[in-house]
């Protein structure tokens, strides 16, 4: 039985008092102080971990004014704060042991757009891709790009002065900031924009903190202008944090205080709103993928590509390419980067051209390709081939692959993982190849593995050497390499932080700014934040302050992970491997990952949040001397005895009375998971939440009683066949209001599905009866047309007409279908963590299916969420005993068949099940090919999760989220195409449409049956 866990981290009394006072003062946002909520923001994509005291999630600027003003009162004047956006920083910029102000949950409004003047005004929590989706219909976009564009916020981008691909043309974030609204620590609102210097001087007379700030920045940037110009490198990635150089224009007639705030890493104030410049979307675009024999060839060739007037040049090495080849992303790009026969492709440059004028692009491309052809013919420069595309979707896929590179590098086996600490160096592009060769030699001298990619046009290199920071020696090595890289970048006239900011690398600030200018930074910090209360330790400390900067040697996540035994870490590697890159926070409503994160906007309810909670749970249980793996074995081997049951009753009573236990917090996060498994394939390091979730549920319920609904769901495959004997009676009872009310109140179940009437047996009779001995005795010729249909509990008992239609379709195609007897699959048991029972179910089903496998006949299944369990969970649970049987999904099998043509050319819309299309990314394409073969049309529609996910949507506690998920991406396409023209592959999804729209869409095979 798991122990009770009480992390000894009681909240500081003043934080509790501050939270209460905030409410009294009218703070409208969320105040979260639970251990789980704090843990969810204790990490970012860096190697560091810091647990804050509380997380405040303001709704607007007023909330931040309330909290900063309140923080001035003497009882709270010691409290410190760190702003946070998407939390995708790579160097711990937003981590703190104090109070986090998270603007990403509520402050996501786009406030105003002025197309004529080409600007937009947004709240700081708006996500970069969200903004671009909004701007697209106007023909504009927010130009600075970054790999984390689907989760990084504008506030975060401003504060790290983010940039990325295309920065030579599109610049950095600071180049597009027209005005900022920043709340200062004293509660004053600072509004900044470009102004005449005399106006700034006028403002400097104000007798408050704002006047002081103007005075100081004017003095620092004017008096030290010469040193600044001399010190700041002439790089596209100039020296940020604080950008003393660009506050003034060249002749010092204009002054822009926003330039000090951009890149300040939240150390000066809380940016709440931004007015941003917007850029017209170029009408014409093309991408050339130039292939090389070696990475060095790609690097050395980059200046030639830049000289060919490319808009941007990006590069990836062979390691990244190989990782992409094994990822779900590859199926989108493989046709665009085909192999070169007889040559090993070791490097790739992606060369983009953008223009308002197609002739302009064509002319530039023709000039470049002529030179490339010559180089290929003469075998010079290591160029081995190239491919050109004008297709914007194809271009987006290539960049999606490049953007995923960091995550892909994280998906390496073993304890050494690629980590960020010297991952964004920038040097003048002409020095890049030599710099990288020396950088590689440095890493090679330490025997490290790494992959490299970057913006070669801007001289920015991304590299994450693989280290095992749980090994104290490797932690020391990190410091050594970090110091060496600082020296190396300086040698090549560059910067340690070309793109991702400083964070815990702030200690290197003086090395780059020089002591004199660094002191000016400190004076500016003192003007904004005299008592070092805003993101303390980052960039610099206030002048006169004796506080310390955070350091590369700061507390790392590995310090916590080290406490978990190696065998437990290996067993729960999925949660341990999460590197916090935040891809699972993807804002896009029509993408499958992660529904619970999207609908709650609560970081605990994301794969990252759940992985973090799980890690901490493993650490705390280990602290209590609890052996997780042994306990799991016991739970699988033997049933609980009466004594244990009695203990559970007592524990559950204590829980009911409010006794704290950290396991409840983990449980809450796990309960919010839809078990859709999108994370298992979409997360670049394949964090598979459902697999550790079900293990946690089993362990949790070794201490606490299960709710009745778990038993109902876990046993559904046993009860459904029995209930289906009297479907009319069961449905009659279920349809009564009193039953619905009772089920809701007692079991927490809503909209319980009705059994099929007529039943499957009534619909098909004995026609497709299974007779094993007959099949075994038949010759292979006699069995040649036989196809075996595997039943599942959902379609067989709740959607029998689909099973009957599937059999009819098979017949129509000239096959002899046989319906196998119903045998439980175990998925509902797995989802609810009945792992002992699941293991038994899986064993029985595998035995039966392996027996059939001997017949060498196709085994077909209808619902992907169950069929995929045979492939994944069965393999994990049964290991070698799983056998070789293969249940195919209809589309997998139909694709290989010859299909008749129809004169019907109706075009349908296809909405695929998220579990299916994430695990089998070719699903939609396969259905499309099948339909096209017959003459029918099929258009896959991008949708996220429908919100049903098995029984999730039927649980009363999830009803609100379930409906909201449906509204996010499902309702609109269904209303657009109409239910009759919409085909839906998932049983859950069809049920959800029926429940929320009132009409049930068909499975694609039903449309085929009707048309053929
Ligand atoms: C896989 C990966 C790839 C990346 N690629 C790029 C890239 O191509 N280009 C690039 O530039 N960066 C890149 N980054 C770094 C990171 O995504 C950027 O720094 C991004 O701008 C951070 O935005 P965020 O919303 O996640 O901010 P956070 O990480 O939450 O915060 C970043 C900093 O901004 C401060 N901050 C956040 N919001 C506010 C606010 N409203 N007011 C004041 N301060 C605030 C925080 O205190 C912190 O110091 C990458 C990161 C990862 C994990
Ligand atoms: S769960 Fe995956 S996608 Fe999410 S932060 Fe962790 S590694 Fe990244
Ligand atoms: S299974 Fe689905 S809901 Fe659960 S964490 Fe993964 S993506 Fe999110």
Features:
binds iron/sulfur cluster; 50 helices; binds flavin-adenine dinucleotide; alpha/beta; 45% helix; six-stranded antiparallel sheet
Walk me through what this model shows.
The chain has 1012 residues and is of the alpha/beta class. Helix content is 45%, strand content 13%. The strands form seven sheets. It has a seven-stranded antiparallel sheet, sandwiched between helices. Strand 19 and strand 20 form a beta hairpin. Helix 17 packs antiparallel against helix 18, helix 25 (607-623) runs antiparallel to helix 28 (662-671) and helix 39 (800-812) crosses helix 50. The chain is globular. The two termini are 58 Å apart. The mean pLDDT is 93. The site of flavin-adenine dinucleotide has 38 residues, from strand 3, helix 5 and strand 11.
- Count of helical regions: 50
User: Helical residue percent?
Assistant: 40-55%
Mean pLDDT: 93
Bound small-molecule species:
flavin-adenine dinucleotide, iron/sulfur cluster
Query: What does the main sheet amount to?
Result: 7 strands, antiparallel
Strand content: 5-15%
Oligomer: single chain
Distance between the termini: 58 Å
The number of strands is 28
The general outline is: globular
Low-pLDDT windows of residues: none
Radius of gyration: 30 Å
Largest sheet strand order: 16-13-15-14-19-20-18
Q: State the secondary-structure class.
A: alpha/beta
Indicate the topology.
Blueprint: H1 13-24, E1 30-32, H2 35-40, E2 54-57, H3 61-70, E3 81-84, E4 99-102, E5 110-114, E6 119-123, H4 128-135, E7 140-141, H5 154-160, H6 167-170, E8 177-183, E9 189-196, H7 197-203, H8 209-223, H9 225-231, E10 254-256, H10 258-261, E11 270-277, E12 279-280, E13 284-292, H11 295-307, E14 312-317, H12 318-325, H13 330-333, E15 347-355, H14 358-378, E16 383-389, H15 392-403, H16 405-410, E17 417-418, E18 425-426, H17 432-445, E19 452-455, E20 460-463, E21 466-467, H18 472-491, H19 509-513, H20 515-528, H21 557-561, H22 566-571, H23 573-577, H24 595-600, H25 607-623, H26 628-637, H27 642-656, H28 662-671, H29 678-682, H30 689-700, H31 708-714, H32 716-723, H33 727-735, H34 737-747, H35 760-764, H36 772-777, H37 780-783, E22 786-790, H38 793-798, H39 800-812, E23 816-819, H40 827-831, H41 835-853, E24 859-861, H42 864-871, H43 873-878, E25 887-889, H44 890-894, E26 907-911, H45 914-919, H46 923-934, E27 937-940, H47 959-969, H48 971-977, E28 982-984, H49 987-997, H50 1004-1011
Parallel strand pairs: 2-4, 3-4, 22-23, 22-24, 24-25, 26-27, 26-28
Antiparallel strand pairs: 1-2, 5-6, 6-11, 7-12, 8-9, 8-11, 9-10, 13-15, 13-16, 14-15, 14-19, 17-21, 18-20, 19-20
Helix pairs in contact: 8-20, 17-18, 25-28, 25-30, 28-30, 39-50
Bound molecules: flavin-adenine dinucleotide and iron/sulfur cluster (SF4) (2 copies).
């Amino acid at each position: 039985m798991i122990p009770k866990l009480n992390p000894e981290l009681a909240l500081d009394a003043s934080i509790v008092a501050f939270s209460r006072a905030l409410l009294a003062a009218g703070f409208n946002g969320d105040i979260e102080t639970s251990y789980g909520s704090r843990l969810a923001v204790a990490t970012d994509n860096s190697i560091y971990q810091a647990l804050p005291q509380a997380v405040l999630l303001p709704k607007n600027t007023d909330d931040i004014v309330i909290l900063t003003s309140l923080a001035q009162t003497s009882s709270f004047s010691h409290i410190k704060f760190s702003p946070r956006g998407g939390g995708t920083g790579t160097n711990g910029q937003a981590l703190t042991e104090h109070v986090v102000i998270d603007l990403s949950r509520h402050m996501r409004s786009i406030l105003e757009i002025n197309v004529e003047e080409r600007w937009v005004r947004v709240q700081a929590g708006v996500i970069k891709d969200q903004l671009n989706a909004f701007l697209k219909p106007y023909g504009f976009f927010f130009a600075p790009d970054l790999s984390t564009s689907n989760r990084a916020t504008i506030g975060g981008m401003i504060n790290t002065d983010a940039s990325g691909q295309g920065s030579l043309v599109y610049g950095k974030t600071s180049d597009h900031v027209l005005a900022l609204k920043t709340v200062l620590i004293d509660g004053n609102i600072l509004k900044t924009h470009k102004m005449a210097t005399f106006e700034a001087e006028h403002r400097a007379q104000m007798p408050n903190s704002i006047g002081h700030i103007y005075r100081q920045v004017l003095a620092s940037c004017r008096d030290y202008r010469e040193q600044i110009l001399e010190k700041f490198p002439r790089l596209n990635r100039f020296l940020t944090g604080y950008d003393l150089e660009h506050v003034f224009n060249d002749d010092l007639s204009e002054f822009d205080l926003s330039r000090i705030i951009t890149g300040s890493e939240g150390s000066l104030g809380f940016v709440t709103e931004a007015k941003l410049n917007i850029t017209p979307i170029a009408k014409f675009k093309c991408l050339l993928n130039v292939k090389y024999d070696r990475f060095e060839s790609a690097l050395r060739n980059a200046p030639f590509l830049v000289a060919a007037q490319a808009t941007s040049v990006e590069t990836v090495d062979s390691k990244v390419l190989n990782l992409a080849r094994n990822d779900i992303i590859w199926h989108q790009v493989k046709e665009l980067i085909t192999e070169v026969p007889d040559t090993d492709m070791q490097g790739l440059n992606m060369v983009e051209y953008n223009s308002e004028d197609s002739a302009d692009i064509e002319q530039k491309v023709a000039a470049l390709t002529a030179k490339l052809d010559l180089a290929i013919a003469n075998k010079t420069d290591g160029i081995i081939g190239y491919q050109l595309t004008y297709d914007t979707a194809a271009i987006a896929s290539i960049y999606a692959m490049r953007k995923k590179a960091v995550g892909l590098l994280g998906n390496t086996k073993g304890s050494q993982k690629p980590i960020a600490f010297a991952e964004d160096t920038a040097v003048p592009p002409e020095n890049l190849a030599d710099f990288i060769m020396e950088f590689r030699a440095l890493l090679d001298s330490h025997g490290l593995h790494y992959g490299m990619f970057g913006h070669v046009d801007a001289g920015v290199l991304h590299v994450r050497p693989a280290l095992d920071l749980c090994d104290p020696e490797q932690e020391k090595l990190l410091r050594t390499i970090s110091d060496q890289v600082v020296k190396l970048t300086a040698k090549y006239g560059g910067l340690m932080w070309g793109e991702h900011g400083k964070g815990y690398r702030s200690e290197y600030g003086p090395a780059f700014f020089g002591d004199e200018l660094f002191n000016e930074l400190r004076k500016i910090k003192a003007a904004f934040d005299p008592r070092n209360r805003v993101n303390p330790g980052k960039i610099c400390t206030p002048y006169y302050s004796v506080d310390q900067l955070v350091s590369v040697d700061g507390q790392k996540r590995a310090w916590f992970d080290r406490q978990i035994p190696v065998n437990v870490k290996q067993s729960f590697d999925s949660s341990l491997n999460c590197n916090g890159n935040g891809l699972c926070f993807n804002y896009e409503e029509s993408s499958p990952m992660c529904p619970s994160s999207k609908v709650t906007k609560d970081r605990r309810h994301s794969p990252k949040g759940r992985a973090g909670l799980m890690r901490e749970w493993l650490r705390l249980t280990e602290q209590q001397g609890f052996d997780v793996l042994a306990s799991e074995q016991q739970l699988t081997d033997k049933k609980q005895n009466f004594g244990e049951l009695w203990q559970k009753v007592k524990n559950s009573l204590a829980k009911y009375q409010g006794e704290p236990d950290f396991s409840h917090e983990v449980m809450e996060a796990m309960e919010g998971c839809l078990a859709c498994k999108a994370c298992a394939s979409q997360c670049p390091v394949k964090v598979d939440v459902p697999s550790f979730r079900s293990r946690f549920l089993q362990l949790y319920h070794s201490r606490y009683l299960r709710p009745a609904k778990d038993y109902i769901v876990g046993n559904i495959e046993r009860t459904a066949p029995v209930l289906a004997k009297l479907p009319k009676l069961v449905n009659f009872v279920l349809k009564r209001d009193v039953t619905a009310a009772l089920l809701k109140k007692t079991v927490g179940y809503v909209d319980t599905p009705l059994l099929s009437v007529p039943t499957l047996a009534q619909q098909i009779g004995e026609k497709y009866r299974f007779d094993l001995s007959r099949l075994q005795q038949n010759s292979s010729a006699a069995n040649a047309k036989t196809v075996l249909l595997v039943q599942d509990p959902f379609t067989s008992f709740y959607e029998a007409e689909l099973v009957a239609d599937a059999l009819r379709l098979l017949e129509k195609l000239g096959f002899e279908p046989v319906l196998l007897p119903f045998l439980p699959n175990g998925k509902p048991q797995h989802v609810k963590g009945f792992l002992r029972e699941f293991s038994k179910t899986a064993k029985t089903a595998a035995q039966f299916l392996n027996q059939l496998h001997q017949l060498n006949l196709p085994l077909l299944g209808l619902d992907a969420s169950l069929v995929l369990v045979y492939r994944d969970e069965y393999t994990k649970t049964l290991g070698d005993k799983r056998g070789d049987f293969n249940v195919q999904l209809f589309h997998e099998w139909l694709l290989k068949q010859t299909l008749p043509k129809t004169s019907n050319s109706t075009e349908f819309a296809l909405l695929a099940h998220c579990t299916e299309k994430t695990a089998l990314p070719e699903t939609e394409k396969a259905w499309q090919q099948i339909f096209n073969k017959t003459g029918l049309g099929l258009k896959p529609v991008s949708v996220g999760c429908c919100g049903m996910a098995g029984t999730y949507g039927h649980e009363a506690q999830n009803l609100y989220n379930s409906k909201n998920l449906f509204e996010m991406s499902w309702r609109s396409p269904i209303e657009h195409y109409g239910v009759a023209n919409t085909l839906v592959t998932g049983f859950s999804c069809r049920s959800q449409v029926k429940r929320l729209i009132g009409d049930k869409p068909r499975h694609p095979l039903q449309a085929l049956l009707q048309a053929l």
